[in-house]
Amino acid sequence: MIEQGHFYALAVEDGIATVTIDRTNRMNSLHPASHHELNSLFDRLPTMTGVRVVIITGAGDRAFCSGYDLKDNLETGIMEVGQAGFAGFNGRATYPLPVIAAVNGMALGGGFELALACDFIIASTKATFGLPEPKVGWAAAGGGLQRLPRAVGMKRAMDIILTARTVSALEALSIGLASEVVPPEELMPAARRWAEQIVSCAPIAIRCSKDIAYGSFDLPDLASALDIRHFPTLQEVMDSKDAAEGKRAFVERRPPQWAGK
Questions:
Q1: Would you call 133 a catalytic residue per the annotation?
Q2: Segments making up each domain of the chain, as ranges
């Protein structure tokens, strides 16, 4: 299935939805109309039958997303994002589907924040990351200042934040920001390979795993995080049809047939 928006393309195949930001004439930077359009798309994706995983990437080979469209802001005087923040995604503290960022080029400002809002990052060797907002008198208020320390630790994050420097793909891999770095031509196959591994798992178990992993950050200590009473979805998973099917398929040495419940 292919859907062409004004500022994105959507392809869905084998449970994997690939969202391609498409404003190559502006280095895939985003302006108000594109924020709102993407907001609507990310609202719809979890309701689309069969969609299990989302990959976000950028059109062309130069930019994943280079942030807010400053030229548009200067021309119109309007600064506006979607209801759920930059790209209609960065302001979401939770999202029901696993999301992979396939970073094909520059991920700067809001674009870096978009990658950080995804569950993990696969990067091209051409990828670069940065929060250059202080260089233009702004601050990275779209989640970068909150998510980067959680991703790589406070000290490492602060040297990136306070210098507004650019991080290469190889450095991103070395500090645990990217999960894999591949040549440009291998980026989307690599992202799909990771997505296919997720699709092979029980969807209800994946949702629960995300809930617990992220929800643990909101609890005061490890003892609280280990208290399963904080995560009622865990019992739902253990009592689910998919849990029974998984055990049965393992014993029968066959691929499981997930019902999603």
A1: yes
A2: 2-199, 203-252
Query: Which burial class, exposed, middle or buried, applies to 25 when counting CB atoms under 10 A from its CB (0-12, 13-18, 19+)?
Result: exposed
What's the CATH superfamily of 2-199?
A: 2-enoyl-CoA Hydratase; Chain A, domain 1 (3.90.226.10)
Q: What is the pLDDT of residues 58-97, one digit of tens each?
A: 999 999 999 999 888 878 888 888 899 999 999 999 999 9
Reply yes or no on domain 203-252 having CATH 1.10.238. no
What is the per-residue pLDDT for 70? 84
pTM value surpassing 0.90 = yes
Q: Which of 3, 13, 133, 252 is catalytic?
A: 133
Active-site residue identified among 37, 75, 113, 171: 113
Does 113 qualify as catalytic in the annotation?
yes
Q: What pLDDT is attached to residue 121?
A: 98
| Rounded alpha-carbon distances, angstroms, from residue 209 to 14, 100, 212 | 22, 16, 5
> Residue 242's pLDDT band (boundaries 50, 70, 90)?
confident
* Structure tokens that stand for 54 in this block: 């989302």
